[in-house]
Amino acid sequence: MEIDYHKIGLKAGLEIHQQLDTRTKLFCKCPTTLREKKESIFSFKRYLRASKSEMGEVDEAALEEEKYSRTFIYKGYDSTCLVENDEEPPRELNQEAIDISLEVALLLNMNPVDEVHTMRKIVIDGSNTCGFQRTALVATDGRLSTEEGLVRVDLLCLEEDAAQKIETEGNAVGYSLDRLGIPLVEIGTAPDIKTAEQARKVAEQLGMILRSTGKVKRGLGTIRQDINISIEGGARVEIKGVQNLRLIGEIVKNEIVRQLKLIELKDALNKRGAKVEHRIEDLSVIFEGTASKVIKKSGGEVFGVCLRGFSGILGTEIQPGRRFGSELADFATKYGVGLMHTDELPAYGISEEEVERLKRTFDAAEDDCVVIVAAERERAEVAMKAVLRRAEVAMREIPKETRRALPNGSSAYMRPLPGAARMYPETDVPQVDIDEQRLKEIKSKLPETFEHRKVRYKEKFGLNDELADKISRNVNFSIFERIMDSYENIPATLVVRTLTDTLTELMPEGIEVETLEDRHFLDTFEQLTANAFGKEAIPDILKFLANKPETSVDKAVEEIGLSVDMKVVERLIEDIVNSKTDFIREKGARAVGPLMGVVMKELRGKVDGKVISKLLAEKVKEVLEGG
Amino acid sequence: MQKLGFGEGDRIRIKKETDSGVVVYEGIVMPTASRNIAIKLDSGYNIGIRPENAEIEVISRAEVLKEGVTEGKQIGKVKEGLPILSILSTGGTIASKVDYRTGAVSPQFSTEDILEAIPELGEIANIRGKVVYSILSENMRAEYWRKLAAEVYNEIKNGAEGIIVTHGTDTMGYTAAALSFMLQTPVPVVLVGSQRSSDRPSSDAAMNAICAAKVACSDLAEVVVVMHGSTSDDFSFIHRGTKVRKMHTSARDAFQSVNDVPIGKVYYDASSVEKIKLEFFSGYNKRGENELELRDKFEEKCCLIKFYPGADPAILEFFIAQGYKGIVLEGTGLGHVSAEWIPSVASAIKRGIPVVTTSQCLYGTICDRVYDTGRDLLHAGIIEGEDMLPETALVKLMWVLGQTTDMEEVRRLMHENVAGEIRGRRTKESISSS
Q1: Is some CB atom of chain A closer than 8 A to the CB atom of B54?
Q2: How would you write A412-431 as a 3-class SS string?
Q3: Do A137 and B202 make contact, defined as CB atoms within 8 angstroms?
Q4: How confident is the model over A246-276, as pLDDT tens digits?
Q5: DSSP assignment, residue A284?
Q6: Interface of A with B in 77-106 (CB under 8 A)
Q7: Does A120 touch chain B (CB under 8 A)?
Q8: Taking 90 as the threshold, does the pLDDT of residue A298 lie above it?
Q9: pLDDT number for residue B101
Q10: What is the pLDDT of residue A274?
Q11: Are strands B54-60 and B104-107 parallel, antiparallel or unpaired?
């Protein structure tokens, strides 16, 4: 689906969380290393309660979490301490982490605050043992220049990473404490991003700036992106936990589609006069002799409701692999209950007859949809109520919510958007003064900025403005320099195009370009300068290497069939020239051009065009002189 | 701040010149101990800004906040069949409110607020609450113990079927011992607190309070401390008030019974208060067995001196000269101080000042007959503190001296088990309370 971003009024902002590679955690002296879960040496069990605010209000997100009344099981290691267990007050803010966050802030043209205050942000999903995440605002008001324009960087915070969820069983959620307390910088942009492509580029650029400090962690899970998206007539939605940069564009597009579809569904429901009935029926009797394993497994109790005028709506796809029914199911899942509906039934072993009886129970008309859950009464009822509330909202608006990114670029409901007022000071941690001297020292050691790099590339490598801009912003800028410095006579333009456009073009083909390492590029260009193949073959070689990263470039060239013996090439050219002697005699030296096409047809990519042209010219000359 | 023309709670805008232009911050002025201006931004974050070169504009003045703390008596309808519990607050908090607008955390004492924070209490009993005083537990002193004992006495007299005393954890052991000696009680008197502040969702306050309420409704008629038994939210221990000691600065399971097994255990269940079960490990005084009695005379001028290698006997001389009426020594091993101290100890006793020995080991009993120094101490007239905790021995000596000044009577009472503070037998199990 082509999206007219201007027309839909996309506003998107990014929030990037990057783990810092500090020696110790943010508030204790534990190392920042992740552990194998089987190395855990103890565990303990806790509950969390939402704190009440002065007004008697509890943060909406926090309250919803508490409704699930869950037990949290934490696994600890010999590399975690009482601070992670919430059994000891935190130590002072890690100074190394402050320095790194100030460095990033300065690279983003931000203004550091004069005094850093650590806050408690209420989070009661269990991912923080104390029930809040410690976070501190370090800098504000920065900006990032992108090819599509300026993106404001609103804030940079230093915060502790959360514990990692490792398992869920019934009401018990298991977390691993190794990750809890690793310093993170959170960078939040203003909603200045206007296209999906720009979102990806901004994320990429921010990632690059972070890595340029050399003080951030690398590898899977060390950087996470959240995206805030809204469109005209839609709602602000925060999608959390995008681990793959390449998915960002996809996720933005899919969210736009989801909201557009939901708007369509809303209009359709209103037109039909749809209605949500709150009557929850015990339908167990219908399924007494059922063949459905799902129902039998959950004890045979089934409860259902009728959504009047919703037929076909639940089955409508709103994102890849997700229908409106999936949106409703997300709410039931929160209570550990699966959801089924007549848009998709008969299925799951439920028979045609059982479906008929369901519909009859509710006097369901053509337009109506019956939704059922299989669970014991208490759980079924809370789950159903949540589903009914979501169905009612569908007729009214697109809900503001926090969603979880799924690996295919779709997203699932996670919780309501957190309210703004859920922070209070962490009184156990003293404030940190940021003095001029400290900033001066950090400034004197800042890594090179894009702007500097661009100027330098123009001068050193003779790149034009566009290409210099492109490569200096690109993640691969350092490999570009290494290639240019390692091999002589390589056109800078070719290297830039390879590292930028070529890679971008490979992505839609499903090629995992992330698997390509520096050595792959270096070796490729080394072989190119040794005339092992022509530059036209580069995309094929990279494609091959991305799929089989363990292969050497030599081997790749051989496997693709690019490897040619120059004697064979000479012979081939001789054969062609010999077969065209009449033509050559007629045209003279001008015969080289047309013959070039014939030869290249045979040898494209295998031998550099220049080499062929030179050989061909020699052979033609021989014919003319010999004749 | 006042001279800058704004105060706490005002909404202000700060403009500051920086290298990269002008930056503007807007937010609510927060209290701060630093010389910088602290504001809370709309994002919820607090930051500090140096006042130099800052252009400040007041956007709006502080709203007047309602005073929220009220003291409740009985709340809501009396639930038939549920016992009456009195919650007496001394400053330890089992409930707090956070004002996210100002970031202020205020401890809650009113019955309404406690019940709002821990509604389970209302399912266990009809609760009435009272603030006895509001002090940090390190500022506690003997006269407050007396006041508290009198309040407990009155509550029981007025029909309370169980008492819960919320207390800061630092000196809760002392207060528990003091109440144990001062009160003869027909109902449970349960001290409870929290190791992790009640303003955090993970606080141990709620579970401890719920377990305490269950104990306060039981047939146990003694002064006890109920606190977490492990780092998990799974069970609490019921510790005898004279045998309990805070053994960790911050962990949930800091409280342990020393030289004794806990009286019992409370198995917590978050899903329902009905499912919370009690288990007892040892004998205890049963509800209604004892008449209510208050024996609250105290001699406050007693001290606890910790001996260390090379400690100067002048330390002891100082307390004698200061007119102290009773001295507890926390000695080494089986209850020793250096030979150098013996003349001073003897001189104190000669002047009618009882000197009690206890041990820095905490675990085990005093026995001064084993080594020469010990025998010399006994010869000087020292009173062996048996297996009492040094702190319990001090509180007991204060109480004993409130009852009598006769040295022989003091000696007799110090050796007598008055409130479970002396165990005749120590078993392997009593080495560790869990």
Answers
A1: no
A2: EEEEECCCCCCEEECCCCCC
A3: no
A4: 789 999 999 999 999 999 999 999 999 999 9
A5: G
A6: 82, 85-89
A7: yes
A8: no
A9: 65
A10: 93
A11: unpaired
Over range A314-319, report the average pLDDT: 94
Distance CA A157, CA A272 (A): 48
Retrieve residue B62's tokens: 């502080």
The answer to whether residue B272 neighbours chain A at the CB level (below 8 Å) is no
Token readout for A131 is 């029930």
The CA distance from A486 to A521, in Å, is: 12
The alpha-carbon gap from A162 to the nearest alpha carbon of chain B, in Å, equals: 15
Q: Does B240 touch chain A (CB under 8 A)?
A: no
Question: Is B93 a residue of the active site?
Answer: yes
- Verify whether the Cβ–Cβ distance A119 to B38 is below 8 Å: no
Instruction: Report pLDDT digits (tens) over A207-233.
Output: 989 988 989 998 888 999 999 999 998
Which of A137, A94, A95, A143 is closest to A116 using CA atoms?
Answer: A137
Closest partner residue to A87 (CB to CB) among B23, B68, B250 is: B250
A125-163 b/e (C-beta count within 10 Å ≥ 16 → b): bbbbbbbbbbbbbbbbbbbbebeeeebbbbbbbbbbbbb
pTM: 0.82
DSSP 3-state percent helix, strand, coil across chain B (nearest 5): 25, 25, 45
Polymer length in residues for chain A: 627
pLDDT tens string A367-413: 999 999 999 888 899 889 989 999 999 999 999 999 999 999 999 99
**Separation CA A534–CA A610 (nearest Å):** 9
- Residue among B18, B96, B233 whose CB faces A111 most closely: B18
ipTM: 0.91
Per residue in A512-546, pLDDT (tens digit) is 888 888 899 999 999 888 877 888 889 989 999 99
pLDDT value for B68: 46
Q: Residue A448 carries which side chain, given as an amino acid letter?
A: E
Residue of A27, A66, A113 to mutate for B, most B C-beta atoms under 10 A: A113
Contacts of A85 in chain B (CB under 8 A): 231
Backbone angles phi, psi at A195, to 5 degrees: -140, 165
A residues 430-459 closer than 8 Å to B (CB): 431, 433
Q: Which residues of B touch A137 (CB under 8 A)?
A: 41, 43, 45-47
CA–CA gap between residue B368 and residue B357 (Å, rounded): 9
- Of all residues in chain A, what percent carry a pLDDT higher than 90? 60
Between A170 and A53, whose confidence is greater? A170
- Of A326-330, A568-572, B61-65, where does mean pLDDT reach its minimum? B61-65
The answer to whether A144 and A105 have CB atoms below 8 angstroms apart is no
Is the pLDDT at A496 greater than 90? The verdict is yes
B-contacting residues of A 182-201, CB under 8 Å? none
Burial B14-41 (b: 16+ CB within 10 A, else e): bebeeeeeebebebbbbebeeebbbbbb
Half-sphere exposure of A320 (CA within 13 A, CB side): 12
Other CB atoms within 10 A of residue B259 CB: 22
Contacts of B65 in chain A (CB under 8 A): 54
Q: Is the pLDDT score of A506 beyond 80?
A: yes
- With 0-12 CB in 10 A as exposed, 13-18 as middle and 19+ as buried, what is A351? middle
Q: How far apart are CA B142 and CA B136, in angstroms?
A: 14
Q: Does B50 touch chain A (CB under 8 A)?
A: yes
CB atoms within 10 A of CB A219: 8
* CB proximity A286 to B under 8 Å: no
Interchain contact, B101 vs A87, CB within 8 Å: no
Amino acid at A148: E
CA of residue B285 relative to chain centroid, distance: 23
- Closest-CA distance, B126 to chain A, in angstroms, reads 22
Token pair recorded at residue B245: 């000691």
| Residue B169 annotated to the active site | yes
